[in-house]
Amino acid sequence: MKKLAAFIVTAAAAVLSAPASAQFAKAEDAIKYRQSAFFVMGQHFSRIGAMANGKAPFDAKAAQESADIVAVMSKLPWEAFGAGTDKGAPTKALPAIWSEQAKYKEHADKLQAEATKLAAAAKTGNLDNLKTSFGATAGTCKACHDAFRSK
Fold this sequence. Notes:
The chain is an all-alpha fold. The chain contains six helices and no strands.
């Protein structure tokens, strides 16, 4: 019984410690996954931006729904930047992502924090709150793109 328990613990530890990128069959799958997550996040962020910038009428319900999606999506793409995913499909990701992983993680963490604040601001139904939080979140996106994305 002790041997079985030890085996189960060892197997669970091995599975849990495996790189997240191991869930992807090929590097191309990881690249498509992260690009898709960024695409969906960008679409919903753009909808909020149109309202915040006066290019679309403010719709509190739509802003809240989009902000909630941005907050959820902001957590997804990071696991798809594993080893070997810098090659294999067309990507705008710069090599600095893999050589400066701690700095890149700081940007990812900041985006997630700002996206959470954006969702909270959208829940207030107040356009001024939304504008303020949208600006902060957009600044976070820009800072990361400037450092880690090719033009």
